Amino acid sequence: MASHTFLSLLLFYLYSFHLLRPIYCSFGSNGFETTSVPKEEEFSEELLLKPLPDYKVLAHFHFTSTSPPSSSNGKHHHLFPKSIAQLVKKYKIRELELSFTQGRWNYDRWGASDPLSTANGKPPGVELWALFDIPTKEEIDATWRNLTHSLSGLFCASINFLESSTSYSAPLWGFLPNNGDLRYGALPREAVCTENLTPWLKLLPCRDKAGIASLLDRPSIYRGHYHSQRLKLRSDGLNGIVIEQTLSVVLQPIDRTSWSMHQLFKKSLTGKCALAKSSKVFLEIEGNLVSQNENILELVGEADMVTNDQRDHSTIYQYNVERYSEHEALDIRVNWKKLLQVSFLQAPLHASRFLMGSGNERGSIAISLQSARNSTKGLYDNSKNCFTRVVIFQVVPWYVKVYYHTLRIYVDGAIRDAKDVVEKINVAPSEDKVSPGTLEMMLQFPCGMMSAALTLDFDKGFLHIDEYPPDANQGFDIPSALVSFPDFISRRIYPDSISSPLLQSYKGRNIVKSYTEVLLVPLTTPDFSMPYNVITFTCTVLALYFGSMVNVLRRRVSEEERLAKSKDKRKPGLIPLLISKISNKVRGIKEDSANQSQSSQPILGPKVVFKVVLIALIAVLGHYIFNSS
Amino acid sequence: MADETSAAAGTSTETGAGTESNLRTTKPGTKRLFLTVSVLISFLVGAPFLLKSTEIHRSPLPSAAISSLSDHLHSNPPSFPCHFQAIFLSPFKPSDSSLSLSVAERIRAQLSAQSCGNCNFTVSVTVDSGSSCRHEGDAASAACLWECGGGGLVDAIEGRDDQGIDELLLSAVNERTGGCAGRVYSVFVMEGRDERVVIGKHRHAWMVLKDLDDSTSVGSMIGTVFGDYFMRGGVEKGEYIPVGSDGNVVLSFSLLNSNPSDWIYDWDFQRTGEVLLAPVLEALAPVANITMESQVLYHAPKSSISYWDEKLEAYVVNTRDLPFFVNSNEWHLDTSLSASGRSKVLQFVVYVPSASECPLYIRTPEGEISKTNAFISPMWGGVAIWNPHGCSMQSQGIHLVRDVLPPQELEKIIEIFIGQLRILFGLNSNYVEPSPTFKFLASEKGFTNWELDLLYRQHTCFNLLSSLSTLQSLSTLVESLPRMIVMDEIGKQVELSLEAANLAERNISLGINNASALSSIRARALAEDAFFHPSIMSISYSSMEHYFAIYMPFFAPVSLHVLLAAVKEVKRYFAERSKYLAFRASKLKSS
Question: Can you tell me the mean pLDDT for A552-571?
């Protein structure tokens, strides 16, 4: 009886939620929807497949779990992962994002300004940032340290290396505007593999046992060109905790013109996770296919819904996984009839970063920005008053000592005064072995600009012998810089008939941004055996000096000479005689028989032979005994 | 230079006489001798300085104090002062002090059986019937003696149920033993027709006996209540107490759905479980600081195999397969993040079997179905199997069931868990009456007061012993690795821990329970902190080989030179001196 009333209440509640949503949606911002507060923990799973212009396929898994705000957070949970709720509660986290990425998102080929790529393009390795709900700076730092340790335990990764103050920074506006309660750290060299995926899956109620996550066949997804696994959570008193777990993989289908889900993942989707509120698979094609004649591509598998976004940038095919079962697995097959001519949205400027200079002493970092105007013509005009704003955020480890006064900015090849271009700058210089250098810079470029470049000179520092990683000769990685374009917003608004947390997140005002390459800086690596070499060399020299000094002080030269003379008259010693004999034999000189009979007798006598045989015997026995034991 | 010439003169005689020459006209010089010997001596003098300067920093550990205290505790385990009093509410005429003696004897028989949490007891017997009031035996203090005048109790008891009597006696004890109401264990003895022994929820029991004349049998009966139950709780040995070294315990309750495609059960643990468990946690507060949390997990099959039993018409798991029941690969129970430091997490799992193995029962070795359908794993927690109703009737592939565990079912499961918690803490889940006349009143808190006292005593004692064994292993470890760095912090922690252990031991003998428990917890926490100090974990000690590798290249060749020079010089000096002495002697002879 109780369950009946409960169900009807729930139905009513869901219905009201549905009615209210459009109103609430308008408040949405920053990728998260401010929906009416659910009373129950919810989970939904989605997969978005998107053919990329270079015939690769992007598979974007998106899992959302929500936990309503309640006093029992961190104590009693039904669907929501307990560990995450406890993490949020213990460390008073407002927002957190952790990403594990292998490979680099190819902004040129896979798109740079659509919501999917701006939100999911992540720097290689591990990136972690968190916003805390803690007042003082010291407490935030202490909490950050504890958080890194907890996360490294939770995700089987060396996130704990972000603990030291040399590895994280506190950007004020370059990464995300905040009041000094944001901490940002990146580990560019962290390798990502299944040991990170398994704990990540553990946070899903069905793990990879059922539902969309069951497609995650390890060999298939790790074979991809790009692999980014992300956990983003947000907690506040109004909405409770929301976690978004996404996994983006770029896969290469065997056949360029025709691929299916089964071919990509080597697994089939046989049903939804029983716990999921909604379970959907989307296929997104850039460009408006609905209005065009559908002669470009052929889809096998009937979509439940086909729709366009408001500006007709893309077409979405929706498949509800509920309809499929063991007997009828969901397998979307895409056949391209014509060669793909997908136009995709590029970022206004293409950013890349590289090192200049040679040697192990100094060098300079350069960031080059190339206009992509040929593909986005409409955005620019050559009028004087048009400016494009660019924000650059870069963290540099302390051993790369950047001289910020050497900042030079070139616009279209000509050097420009920094005052003209830099609108806002915030520099936190590095402190040796204490903190990394952080550069946040807002630049203004004229719209007609074709290319720009920034250079910064640096000296390479020396590390203590303990501070080198095991493979010191490989060099040191400088984390990716973030280049964002605050004037460019990537958003896509889909009709409200699609209720999907993934597509909802597209509605938010996502600033177009791109991460640059990771830089590899070779530092002078010491010879790690050097201390021992130095010790042994100096000791030997000292011992030689000391020994000879003692001898010089002690010896009586005249007395020894006399002794030597008197000794000459007696028979020569054993060893000099042996040496002279051997040298004579080698030279082939026959000694006179008298001498031979005189001297060879004591050397090769039976006594000596016996001794040699005895020693050899002892050696053989010893060898035998040691080997047998 | 003079020395040189004299030596030349000395040897010139030698050359002439060959090896037999032993004449020397001058005294042998001591300059070179002095030089080489002084170098040698300076080396020898410098050696201690070198050793001192290359010494590894090792904070001195009070190993002697540790071993002495630990020896003391092993030979003489801490015993807590307890006072037992027997109160005769009916006329009783003991001939002599044989009653209290036989009580004490019975209790003493139990003492040897157990090592930790013993009582250093005193027994007193009071006869309080009508006008007569007699005290016998030794009381801890005069305030702890039963104040006579409880004669009306016998009448008041008439017609009340056990619960009522228990409460009545509690108020009587509180009233009449004044200051030590919380520390005295009492047995009320009265005469009556129905023989029975009832052990109450608090710190008293009452017995109705037909015949009070035989003081030995009465005494042994009273002694059984005191010794077997109030002092020992009827348990054989409570060695492990699942409490973290910082005194925290997290009870993690998980509902496991074996296969959510058959059915999904949720629970309202927050409402039902917390209400039912709150008094238990409150009762255990002096022993451990307990928090609880719950979660529901899905796709968590068991890992042992179950068989279809025709007779029972159910799937059964044999008890010998139970060790494999917990599926650590699929049951992501997780250690709790809120369990900070070295807290202990106890897992309590409700397992909902899938349709292919439902109903599922545990079969005892006797071939019967387990009544509780649950089992425990010591120091880990407990598992209870809950079969959805009518699951055997349902055919497979039916529509998905999403349901909530009925509250009354959850209550039953939580009762099982409370029983399991009692076992995990070393008590019996429920008492087996030794005879039909025995009765135990169960507390709604799960633990009766005297059981809590028992846990308290055992816990204090266990903490004390474990802190000392930790300290001792640490000191043996440190001694066995002579070149291991021992930080000052560790030394300090060891000292503080030892201090706390001493304090706890003293407080135990004085009977200050709160302070002894606190300091024993502190001693254990500090000892574990010292043992698991990060600097010890990353055993960064520089080995002897390392030491030799650094100093050998210098000292081996140099010491060879210095030693040889000194030996040669000394030899030569004595040889030359003997020649000189011979010369002097011959000179004297000739002159």
Answer: 78
Place of tokens 């060109």: A225
Are B93 and B242 spatial neighbours (Cβ–Cβ below 8 Å)?
no
Contact B229, B108 (CB under 8 A): no
Q: How many CB atoms within 10 Å of residue B249?
A: 25
Specify whether the CB–CB gap between B116 and B77 falls below 8 A: yes
| A544 with B295: Cβ contact below 8 A | no
Best of B554, B559, B571, B579 to mutate (most A CBs within 10 Å, chain A): B554
Strand pairing of B79-88 and B184-191?
parallel
Distance CA A48, CA B526 (A): 54
Q: How many CB pairs under 8 A join A and B?
A: 119
Q: What sign results for the dihedral spanned by CA atoms B418, B419, B424, B428?
A: positive
Q: How far apart are CA B340 and CA A224, in angstroms?
A: 39
Share the mean pLDDT of chain A. 83
Q: What is the pLDDT of residue A602?
A: 53
On chain A, the residues whose CB falls within 8 A of the CB of B261 are: 210, 271, 274
Q: Which of B176-185, B259-268, B436-445 has the lowest mean pLDDT?
A: B176-185
What six digits make up the tokens of B114? 């157990």
Helices assigned H by DSSP within B189-308? 215-224, 269-284
Helices B31-53 and B544-590: angle between axes, nearest 10 degrees: 160
Question: Which of 208-267 (A) contact B at CB < 8 A?
Answer: 209-210
What pLDDT does A199 receive? 92
Q: What is the pLDDT of residue B500?
A: 93
Scanning B289-318 for CB atoms below 8 A from A yields 291-299
pLDDT band, very low/low/confident/very high, at B96 (cuts 50, 70, 90):
low
pLDDT tens by residue, B196-219: 888 888 888 888 887 777 777 788
What percent of chain A is modeled with pLDDT above 90?
41
User: Which two three-digit tokens encode residue A30?
Assistant: 């920053």
- Chain B residues with CB inside 8 Å of A532's CB? 549-550
CA distances from A23 to A28, A34, A36, A489, B84 (A): 10, 10, 10, 22, 74
| Nearest partner of A97 among A186, A29, A198, judged by Cα | A186
Contact status of B558 with chain A (Cβ, < 8 Å): yes
Q: Of B139, B163, B152, whose CA–CA distance to B86 is shortest? A: B139
Q: Average the pLDDT over each of A337-351, A388-402, A534-548, B288-302 and give the range with the smallest value.
A: A337-351
Q: Does A85 touch chain B (CB under 8 A)?
A: no
